[in-house]
Specification:
heterodimer; A: 241 residues; mainly alpha; 13 helices; 2 strands; B: Glutaredoxin; 29% strand; membrane (chain B); DUF7088 (chain B)
């Protein structure tokens, strides 16, 4: 655990030492703020003391934000050869993958914490359903964790960052949009399977303020699945047939 | 070093485990409901009704099998709910699912039971097809039957199911009287209210000219929008009813707003106002105007074009803030046009009163009679009289020694569908049903009725303040991040300088 934590801290501080973290967080906050408060069906137009608007925006902004965050995680290390350096330091591939995953998740959580002024404003202007807000934030965190593990996987199969970004986005589109649409198209068992695979189904259920074990199992599966295949891909250099 | 095929086998096994875990988890699950009003948890009313069941209720759920996945979740939710009902009722609720699309006989059975198919569009083999979807249920207890023609998704599902069970299980429904004979609406003209009340009560019309007294078996008597004189004899009968503990609901406007001719005046004296005064409830003779109001559509001729525009009309107060009381639980908003203010003048300590509906702080009283001036520019001076009471509850020995309850609303129209019927806002009906429940000491369904419809309106803000808040919320989070970046950079620069001086501590 200690080694994972060391990797997490190292990754996190390298985010903050470079411009990437700031640029991404500022874009995330800018988009979220713009759509939640200024544009279209914003909080004041709807006139309800709820953050549903923000959660729906976050559902999309995080979807684009995360591949950009994860694209360099393993791709760059493989390209520059630093991965060899890292793996000689008596850390397992699993520890590397988990450490990097946690670093990204913490960064997303920091970005989400920065939106707490939204919550303060809304709760001062009306009676807020705190349960629904906690559920909404929890939903965003689980959703992010799912996409981060997909992003890390994408980053593990190529040493080109742009390719990693595009692959992550492509896989993400299935979970974000296509499974949902397919779930509506197909009927019977196949339809239910697609519907179950869709992130939206589980995210919506959480963001109502209801914590359902089925949603937790789903997100845990996506996260574990992503990390496991990332680890396998990372260990590829040690394979023999 | 590891063998490639071993890695692949390991991944496949892992995928299988995930698959199995997800399969099991979708059958075995738990739910924690963090919503404030426990929207997704069975309400107390449902539990009570299920506990009291002393006979078996059979639920036949007619759901098409091959529904699109989104609608399938509706079926899943309904099944989850039924499982919970089955457990709660100690096996007194049993259910079965039937797929009516399978054969024609079942389909006919469903339609004959009163279940309406919903037509939905699905794409199949590149063609849009119309699918007849059944999503209804028939509930049976003994030889009685209740039909839910379309099972509504969401919180309405519980309300639909519980009320249907309640309708079946209450064999001897308490009776509620609806006064007739003085121009009041008939049962057909209050269809929405009648339908909702019929879950718990049997609504009976009472014509006092043919009866020597108000039947004492009535839980409560409703006097809704009378327009003709009520005789002293009739009032004496109502008083006698109250003297024995009978409860009365009155919805009546003593003012008349005639929008057609633009004339606002006091209505004819039908005696009800004087009778209410004997209960220490006084109806004002001025119109309540509220800055927070509904609007009217006005047609303006602009030379060439006819322009229809919406103009705020303070004679239509919009009510959204309700005092705490069982009758107002969960209400979102109501609009009561052309109302007078109610005043309670009693000083007797045995009698208590409570306002139920009040206008906003920015309210005023307008003189009668007057002509409507739609172009009038309203300003703050018109709204200086503070919140006005539009409905109140009085409780105490109102006509004798026995305790009685009385609810008065200074508008008679708001619960009437009229003839031809017009749909009225559900909250208008909810308020009257809640009031009747409270008067009849049966508040069980109040919680359930308004469950999950809670509106959480934002406070009204001045334009400037709103703009400030908007931009502050966009800018402040970004500013926080930038400040952090700056501080971190400074810290790093200081450290770097120390290093350059050879200080590595």
């Amino acid at each position: 655990m200690n080694k994972i934590w060391i990797i997490t801290r190292r990754e996190l501080s390298s985010f903050f030492d470079s411009l990437i973290a700031y640029v991404l967080i500022v874009i995330f906050l800018g988009l979220s703020g713009f759509f939640t408060w200024l544009f279209g069906n914003n909080v004041f137009v709807i006139g309800q003391a709820s953050l549903q608007v923000f959660f729906q925006i976050g559902f999309w902004t995080l979807f684009f934000f995360i591949p950009a965050l994860t694209m360099k995680m393993l791709a760059e290390e493989t390209k520059s050869g630093t991965i060899e350096l890292l793996s000689t330091k008596a850390v397992t591939d699993w520890q590397i993958v988990t450490g990097k995953f946690l670093a990204c998740l913490l960064l997303v959580m920091i970005a989400l914490v920065a939106t707490l002024p939204y919550y303060v404003t809304v709760s001062r202007l009306g009676s807020v359903d705190h349960g629904a807000i906690i559920g909404g934030y929890l939903g965003l965190v689980f959703l992010s964790a799912g996409y981060i593990s997909i992003g890390i996987f994408a980053s593990s199969i190529t040493n080109n960052q742009i390719v990693a970004f595009l692959i992550a986005l492509l896989i993400g589109i299935f979970f974000q949009l296509l499974f949902d649409m397919l779930g509506f198209q197909f009927r019977g068992g196949l339809g239910s399977v697609f519907n179950y695979l869709s992130m939206r189904t589980h995210f919506d259920s959480l963001s109502r303020g209801v914590i359902d074990s089925r949603d937790l199992v789903y997100f845990a599966s996506v996260i574990l699945g992503g990390l496991t295949v990332s680890q396998a891909m990372l260990s590829k250099r040690n394979w023999y047939s | 070093m590891q063998k490639k095929s071993n890695v692949i086998i390991r991944l496949v096994v892992f995928a299988l485990i995930l698959f199995v875990v997800n399969m099991i988890a979708s059958k075995l699950y738990f739910r924690l409901d963090f919503t404030e009003d426990q929207r997704y948890t069975l309400s107390k009313a449902s539990k009570d009704i299920l506990n009291d069941l002393d006979d078996v209720v059979t639920v036949k759920a007619y759901f098409s099998e091959d529904l699109p996945a989104q609608l399938l979740s509706n079926r899943q939710d309904f099944e989850d709910l039924l499982v919970e009902y089955e457990n709660r009722s100690g096996g007194n609720v049993v259910y079965e699912f039937i797929s009516p699309n399978e054969d024609e006989e079942l389909e006919q059975e469903a339609q004959q039971s009163g279940i309406q198919p919903v037509i939905i569009n699905v794409t199949e083999k590149d063609q849009v097809q119309q699918l007849k979807a059944y999503m209804g249920a028939v509930l049976m207890m003994g030889d009685q039957k209740e039909v839910i023609s379309v099972v509504q998704p969401g919180v309405n599902m519980e309300y639909g199911l519980t009320t249907s069970i309640k309708k079946l299980s209450v064999t001897d429904k308490p009776k509620v009287g609806l006064l007739q004979g003085h121009g009041e609406p008939s049962l057909q003209e209050i269809a929405q209210l009648q339908q909702q009340l019929s879950i718990l009560y049997e609504v009976e019309t009472i014509d006092l000219s043919t009866q020597t007294e108000v039947p004492t078996y009535l839980r409560s008597l409703a006097i809704i929008n009378p327009s003709d004189t009520i005789s002293d004899m009739d009032f004496a009968k109502i008083d006698a009813f109250m003297a024995q503990g009978g409860n009365v609901f009155v919805a009546y406007s003593n003012l008349k707003g005639d929008l057609q001719n633009g004339y606002l005046s006091k209505g004819p004296n039908i005696g009800l106002e004087d009778w209410l005064a004997t209960k220490k409830v006084n109806m004002g003779d001025r119109f309540v105007v509220d800055a927070n109001s509904g609007s009217v559509t006005v047609q303006q001729n602009n030379g060439v074009f006819n322009i229809r525009s919406q103009i705020k009309f303070p004679y239509f107060p919009m009510l959204s803030d309700f005092p705490e009381h069982p009758t107002t639980q969960g209400l979102e908003g109501m609009m009561l046009p052309f109302v007078s203010a109610l005043n309670y003048t009693g000083t007797d300590s045995a009698t208590t009163f409570q306002p139920l509906i009040m206008t906003s702080d920015m309210s005023g009283l307008a003189q009668t009679p007057t002509m409507v001036n739609i172009d009038k520019k309203w300003n703050e001076n018109d709204f200086r009289d503070g919140p006005q009471t539009l409905a109140m509850a009085v409780e105490g020995p109102l006509a004798g020694n026995q305790n009685a309850k009385l609810i008065v609303v200074s508008n008679g129209q708001f619960a009437i569908n009229g003839n031809p019927p017009q749909q009225i806002s559900p909250d208008n009906v909810n308020f009257v049903s809640n009031a009747i429940d409270w008067l009849s000491d049966d508040t069980g369904l109040i919680d359930l009725r308004t469950k999950g419809v809670t509106s959480r309106p934002l406070e009204k803000l001045e334009d400037g303040e709103r703009e400030t808040l908007k931009y502050a919320n966009v800018v402040v989070p970004i500013l926080l991040v930038l400040i952090y970046a700056f501080v971190r950079k400074q810290r790093y620069a200081r450290k770097k300088q120390k290093w350059m001086q050879g200080n590595y501590n």
